[in-house]
Amino acid sequence: ITDAKGCSTSESFIYSGLGIDLQTKVSIKIFPNPAINATSINLQLVLNERTDAELSLINVNGEIVQQLNKEFDSGINNTTLNVEQLSSGIYFVQFKSKDLIKTERISIIK
User: Fold this and answer.
1) Residue 41 to residue 64: CA distance in whole angstroms
2) For a 10 Å CB count at each end of the chain, is N or C smaller?
3) More reliable by pLDDT, 64 or 9
């Protein structure tokens, strides 16, 4: 800005956002892992917002062996999956919502 006498000044403005994250985030803990002679596995999902999602247990061939469609609350959600009928091997637990897909690996040993 220049005044009538020819002197210049400048002004700085700092804009800051509110830091609101509108994207769903999830962390998944699987236990026991590896699941040795286990009949079920426990999943703890921590979400930053309530969301409708699909939770799938997938074998190494990409086939869904179990699936659960559910509304998950914001915060900690605990879920149990029955693995009694599954063969030993590597499986994947997949959380899928409209905003994201997150996959974790689990080993099942019989």
Assistant:
1) 16
2) N
3) 64
